[in-house]
Amino acid sequence: MSSITREEPNYFGAGPAYLPTEVLQQAAQDLVNYHGANLGIGEISHRDKRAINVVDETKQKFIELYNIPDTHEVLFLQGGGHTGFSSIATNLLANFAKRTGKKGKGAYAVTGSWSAKAVEEAQRLGVDVEVLTNSKEVFGSYTDIQPFSEWKKPNPEETAYVYYCDNETVHGVEFPFIPQFDGIEVAADMSSNILSKQIDISKFGLIFAGAQKNVGLAGVTIYIIKKTLIEQLPEAELRELGIPVTPIAFHYPTAIKQNSLHNTLPIFTVQILNLVLAKLIKDGSLPEQEKRNDRKSSQLYQILDKHADFYNLPVAKGVRSEMNIVFTMKSPELEAKFLKEAEQANLTGLKGHRSVGGLRASLYNAITEKSATLLAEFVDKFATENK
Amino acid sequence: MSSITREEPNYFGAGPAYLPTEVLQQAAQDLVNYHGANLGIGEISHRDKRAINVVDETKQKFIELYNIPDTHEVLFLQGGGHTGFSSIATNLLANFAKRTGKKGKGAYAVTGSWSAKAVEEAQRLGVDVEVLTNSKEVFGSYTDIQPFSEWKKPNPEETAYVYYCDNETVHGVEFPFIPQFDGIEVAADMSSNILSKQIDISKFGLIFAGAQKNVGLAGVTIYIIKKTLIEQLPEAELRELGIPVTPIAFHYPTAIKQNSLHNTLPIFTVQILNLVLAKLIKDGSLPEQEKRNDRKSSQLYQILDKHADFYNLPVAKGVRSEMNIVFTMKSPELEAKFLKEAEQANLTGLKGHRSVGGLRASLYNAITEKSATLLAEFVDKFATENK
């Protein structure tokens, strides 16, 4: 491990986000001199055995951590949320067309700005979109999730997939349930809560996540996909049906066939994922991580609730995110004072998203309980002093 | 700069490729603790001023190095060659449609496996492709380039762009001229020779290059694009004309409007680019780099030519690549012996591409003259000893 040091930051940015210092120190070593090769892992061909090992090891750790059954594949692509939006729509329509001979619809739950963006991108590409629930229309804002029983029910004969965002990073809304449909597979965006808790993979047709919040640096996206969703009609037939052809770099069947190495994968970025996952396994895997995340967010929410006359929590209790805790105060001046004093106390990255304002504390996997406690104490003290 | 060390490798891999040790040492530092912030540059939001500075600085260095005129924009996207193939086709068709109201063709020069792949991808997506020259058909293999006067001439009324690959990494063929057409802009893949020499940017409608050969790690692609090629028809009209809509993450007008930050750019990977370019400027910019590259490749070609009875150079003299020097020997056994002894002499990454076999020495910008000379001496000695 390298000797590059830093004082532990208490950094609560929403992403790209804090990573464990020991992971970055090891990554720094691997960047310059990987396993004594006098070459960095990023300078080696992606066809080299050492690079392939990095991909295989990382994949295997996902399988281990999530207990991924044989029914599903794990793959890595470049891109992030936006390439997920487009690639899920076009790949899953192409699969539905293979199964039914038809151009299906994409059905969406809109519960925050990220799922809204997914809809926007699907429509740009020419996908027929059906919206099953839209929190903004139901509640006036993205602060709650409509009970599942009240959602519009999609027709399995016409619907290629249902899409939802499991954790809305900007609005701080997290699903407390997994929407399930007879005869339609569900695709979930877990960019900001991947590996934050145990889940039953068999309930998902597809899960995707950009690495840069919970598990690594920007530039790699993880896909977990059910094997029945892989096969597709040939491109010429897709075009005839009016289904947009997926660019080859995001074509799931090709990526799976080539072990995520059809085109050049950024192997150094995958290696950071590999190191993050190794640490997660060493530290007790998902059962322990889930408990740590519960403790971190409960502590902060409790303090915020204790000062309900001072802090405003816009998100309904039942759908509060464990990852992104959004709160506001009665004036922008007070919020500015909070940010300034927090920074003086070495607590940073707390400004809310430009579209919603206020404050946001992201308590991703890598945020230590010590950092979370320092923040909770500061939140408590600031309320007491400024009421 | 970090204290992570390595012995200088003499690594001639074709990409991802060797980077200067001092660049990687600085990058290692920036990965863990950027400018004393106790945070790595990859952990900071891409909306943070520090991240935006990295993008702006890197862009500015490209402008300085290539003397890029005001008529052109520089942008960075994720992806690599394959996303270049798709995004160039769909973006430039959408621009042609804006200018003419028509679905234009893409005209291609096929001079090696990379330009052949570009054609393949365009056809997958439903682009009407016209091939202007195909070396394999003319010469039986990708070992020469047809004189420009003999190329098919595209019709500017129907042609959105002409595409060619300036340096074919696999086959070791580099263009000694820039193809130019009245009324049609040229798009060039310079993935493996970007910034290797001075060029006149005004002759290009578009240049693109994956970073991982000459200027950085995999995961970022550089685009230099003429402003007249940016504007596009709205998506609904494109779909009516049968033009594939570009996924938003690769939509040039959006990327330019958002300073390459519409979606999350891998800032750490851009920072490596920034460091590579800073070193290039410090070391005399392109005039000096061009001379170094000339000396490195001339020296090796001279030795290979001296032993023309022992080494076979498949590529015609006039189109030999300065970056990727391809040669074979009379038997696979002898080539294996060469590779083994080269490795013993600490000269690695010399195996030819799996599709063509033989040997390949990639003498990218970062390869020092010292490394190139050690290789040339070994090549000389091996011939003398094994004739």
TrEMBL record, chains A, B:
Pathway(s): Amino-acid biosynthesis; L-serine biosynthesis; L-serine from 3-phospho-D-glycerate: step 2/3
Co-factor(s): pyridoxal 5'-phosphate
UniProt enzyme class: transferase
Catalytic activity: O-phospho-L-serine + 2-oxoglutarate = 3-phosphooxypyruvate + L-glutamate; 4-(phosphooxy)-L-threonine + 2-oxoglutarate = (R)-3-hydroxy-2-oxo-4-phosphooxybutanoate + L-glutamate
One GO CC term on file: cytoplasm
The keyword Transferase appears for this protein: yes
EC id: 2.6.1.52
InterPro entries reported for this sequence: Aminotrans_V_dom (IPR000192), Aminotrans_V_PyrdxlP_BS (IPR020578), Pser_aminoTfrase (IPR022278), PyrdxlP-dep_Trfase (IPR015424), PyrdxlP-dep_Trfase_major (IPR015421), PyrdxlP-dep_Trfase_small (IPR015422)
NCBIfam families: PRK05355.1
Protein name (database record): phosphoserine transaminase
